[in-house]
From TrEMBL:
Name the record gives this protein: Adenosine kinase
Keywords: ATP-binding, Kinase, Magnesium, Nucleotide-binding, Nucleus, Purine salvage, Transferase
Organism of origin: Astatotilapia calliptera
Spans traversing the lipid bilayer: none
EC number of this enzyme: 2.7.1.20
Molecular function terms, GO-annotated: adenosine kinase activity; ATP binding
Carbohydrate kinase PfkB domain ranges (all copies): 26-337
Length: 343
């Protein structure tokens, strides 16, 4: 299966996840909701200094898109380097860790390395079952199209792929890079996938999001992100199936492929536009087996992409996504056992 090498292309914010168990006072001190995803502001500076001093601090290679392509690679196992990943890091210890972790995961990472900013981090502040994520993009925010994506050797890797995946989070960094990749996919009738990623993307980065939307063949999101997106676009419905349908019908550049919209809803059925809107139940899991739902969304996408690069039917892609998410929520962080037990 060497033909699968570099078939999947991902681009996003490579972050080192720093997770620790905190208490309500910690959340209140920094004005955090128990369950949220935000970008760090000046008032969070001290948070990063404090969280590393907690006991039981864990470091994991993260960043939404990078997590997803790693899981796709894990699901496929062989060949190595099915996924190419682009993003920006600093020339520092955290950057070296990310390079090492990508290599261990057999992802073909080509980072743009610069020394203006340190490697980005994401603090996962854990209270019970909840995770409040605060991302300090730093270097991740320094990705430059003309310094990296446009270079011939890198663009060749983009051209090699047939499936593309970029999380919505990258819209805050380099929308012009996303559009260039999305246009390429559309022009060549390849598959471009995107994720709504977090409510703040639809709220504050709606303009770049809607510039890319005509090129999106597959759109992922969860129920909260779907509701926010619908509100921002004035859909006037909070019915998730209806939102999926309306999103599917938004203007599309490449008419050879009808847009597919996939909305996960935690333990509730996944909603997908397979021709018509269809509900797919997730795998049953005992509440006590759930350790960390943080990586579930990224894992779902990773499983989905692993089936998609093999050109499996949509139903099969969703089944693979559900499997991967079910494995990841039993573990801390977006980590996985040595091999999948998936048939």
């Amino acid at each position: 299966l060497t033909s699968l090498e570099n078939m999947l292309f991902g681009m996003g914010n490579p972050l080192l996840d720093i997770s620790a168990v905190v208490d309500k006072d910690f959340l209140d001190k920094f004005g955090l909701k128990p369950n949220d995803q935000i970008l760090a502001e000046d008032r969070h500076k001290a948070l990063f200094e404090e969280i590393v001093k907690r006991n039981k601090v864990e470091y994991h290679a993260g960043g939404s898109t990078q997590n997803s392509v790693k899981i796709a690679q894990w699901m496929l196992q062989k060949p190595h380097k099915v996924a190419t990943f682009f993003g920006c890091i600093g020339k520092d210890r955290f950057g070296e860790i990310l390079k090492k972790k990508a290599e261990e995961a057999h992802v073909d990472a080509h980072y743009y390395e610069q020394n203006e900013e340190p490697t980005g981090t994401c603090a996962a502040c854990i209270t019970g079952d909840n995770r409040s994520l605060v991302a300090n993009l730093a270097a991740a925010n320094c990705y430059k199209k003309e310094k990296h994506l446009d270079l011939d050797s890198n663009w060749e890797l983009v051209k090699k792929a047939k499936v593309y995946y970029i999380a919505g989070f990258f819209l805050t960094v380099s929308p012009e890079s996303i559009v260039k990749v999305a246009r390429h996919a559309s022009d060549k009738n390849k598959i471009f996938c995107m994720n709504l990623s977090a409510p703040f993307i639809s709220q504050f980065f709606k303009e770049p999001l809607m510039k890319v939307m005509p090129y999106v063949d597959i759109l992922f999101g969860n129920e909260t992100e779907a509701a926010t997106f619908a509100k921002e676009l004035g859909f006037e419905t909070d019915d998730i199936a209806e939102i999926a349908k309306k999103t599917q019908n938004l203007p599309k550049e490449n008419t050879k492929r009808q847009r597919v919209v996939v909305f996960t809803q935690g333990k509730d059925d996944t909603v997908a536009t397979v021709g018509m809107v269809t509900m797919f139940p997730v795998l049953d899991i005992d509440q006590n087996d759930i350790v960390d739902t943080n990586g579930a969304g990224d894992a779902f996408v990773g499983g989905f992409l692993s089936a998609l690069v093999q050109e499996h039917a949509l139903e099969e892609c969703i089944r693979a996504g559900h499997y991967a998410a079910n494995v990841i929520i039993r573990r801390v962080g977006c980590t996985f056992p040595e091999k999948p037990d998936y048939h």
